[in-house]
Every structure is written in structure tokens, then in C-alpha cells.
């Protein structure tokens, strides 16, 4: 299945992820500056999107697009974030598996806004965030993951997840509920190579530590 990579304007990764597994690579205009600092191979970019509200950034991107032949997509709609609009573009290009870097860090309202966008698209795309500490994403109601023994696992209801059962965690859940503001499932540990999580109602965000 085709896979897309998107960089957005949060805390930049310390290094460039492996690019060979992606069929489409894009960034928002706000992420362009840190890609340049990381010496990202700009010929690998397929498009840059955003409202380009800084003329200096816009001029620099236009110049680079002429050198490296990536597409510039202006998205002036101020009712949606640049992240939201970039996801819409990627979905229109028929990509449903999307890895996102730069989703956390920086101003915390941006981080919460990015989670809100991911929640809005959770039924249309397999959208996963990666940063220097963990990966995190919304999971379906019958979920398993392997190769994570010893890693920290946190489960965050959004805002409620009911009748949760887990296998392979140090502190398992047995048909229990997690509710934001009452009880959440942070700082657990994967004791097995594979863990499984099932729940009946609500939505659940998983964090898998590095």
C-alpha cells in the first residue's frame, strides 16, 4: 500500500528519517526551514503546501522549486490549519498511510490542534506521528503491535474508551474504562514482543516510546 511522509511545523526531528519506504514526501511551508537546516534532499520533495504568509519564505520556496521541481500548493483557507489542508491534499492523491514528523513540541496549542486533526481523519487514513520520544496514533478497536518488548506504552482516551482489554502489558486492563479527567493509562510497559488491545466504545490514542 502506498505510503506518504509529511513534515509539519512543530519540533523538528534530530535527523532525517529513512526515505526509501515512501511513495510521496511533502511538507508545509513552516517546516521548510528546518528541512533545509537538516540538509534534506529537496529533490525528494513532491510538494510544499501552506498559506505562505511570509513573502521571504514564499520567494525562497519558489526559487528552490525551480531548482528541484517540487509542486507548490497554496492553501489560503484560514478556517483550517496547514496540517489539516496538507492531509486533505495527500488523501486527494490517494494516499491513506501517512507518517507525520513535527507534530509535537513547540507551542502546545499547536500540538493539541494536531491531535484534533488526526482525530478528524482517523476513519479515512492511518495517520501516525513520530518524534524523538515516541510514535503515537489513534488505534482501531481490535489492535495489535509486535516488536516492542520493553518499550513504554501509554493509552490515552479521547475522551472516553470503554471495555478495554489488553494482553502483553505489565499492568493489564480487564474490561475497564479510561476517561479523560478521571483515569488514563500512561507509563505502562510492554512485557511481550506483541501486545494486543481491544475496546468496545470511544476512541483511544496509543503512545509507543522509543
Supply database-style keywords.
single chain, 210 residues, alpha/beta, 13-stranded mixed β-sheet, 4 helices, 13 strands, 21% helix, elongated
Describe the structure.
- The protein has four helices and 13 strands.
- The chain has helices spanning 32-37, 55-68, 82-92, 108-120, and strands at residues 3-7, 24-28, 47-50, 71-74, 97-101, 126-130, 134-139, 142-146, 152-167, 174-179, 185-189, 194-198, 201-209.
- Helix 4 links the parallel strand 5 and strand 6.
- It is elongated and about 55 Å long.
- The chain starts with a strand and ends with a strand.
Secondary-structure map with pairings?
Elements: E1 3-7, E2 24-28, H1 32-37, E3 47-50, H2 55-68, E4 71-74, H3 82-92, E5 97-101, H4 108-120, E6 126-130, E7 134-139, E8 142-146, E9 152-167, E10 174-179, E11 185-189, E12 194-198, E13 201-209
Parallel strand pairs: 1-2, 1-5, 2-3, 3-4, 5-6
Antiparallel strand pairs: 6-7, 7-13, 8-12, 9-10, 9-11, 9-12, 9-13
Summarize the structure.
By secondary structure, this protein is α/β, with parallel strands linked by helices. Helices cover 21% and strands 38% of the residues.
Query: What number is the mean pLDDT?
Result: 92
Give the low-pLDDT segments: none
Give the structural class. alpha/beta
Shape: elongated
Helix content: 10-25%
**How many individual β-strands?**
13
Kindly provide the radius of gyration, computed on alpha-carbon positions and rounded to a whole number of angstroms: 18 Å
